[in-house]
Design brief:
Elements: H1 2-14, H2 16-44, H3 51-74
């Protein structure tokens, strides 16, 4: 299992452009949330107390799934 993980890490970091684009995609989704969605979502859920920490945890918990999907599809060297 360790050999498979090392192989995948080497494949991922071999494509420098893919790594940079993956990080940029993650940052874009994070900043869109911070700049636009956080205020909109918290105002629409005004009947729930302390909604901002829950929304932040929800965003942080959901973002890695976006990274995973993008990395699998674009940065493993099999697709462009």
């Amino acid at each position: 299992m360790l050999a498979l993980a090392q192989r995948n890490i080497k494949l991922y970091f071999r494509n420098h452009t893919g790594v940079v684009m993956s990080l940029i995609g993650a940052l874009i989704s994070f900043f869109i949330y911070i700049c636009f969605l956080q205020k909109n979502l918290s105002s629409s859920w005004n009947n729930v107390k302390n909604i901002t920490p829950m929304l932040d945890a929800w965003m942080v918990g959901g973002n890695p799934s976006n990274y995973r999907d993008h990395n699998c599809l674009c940065c493993d060297g099999t697709t462009g």
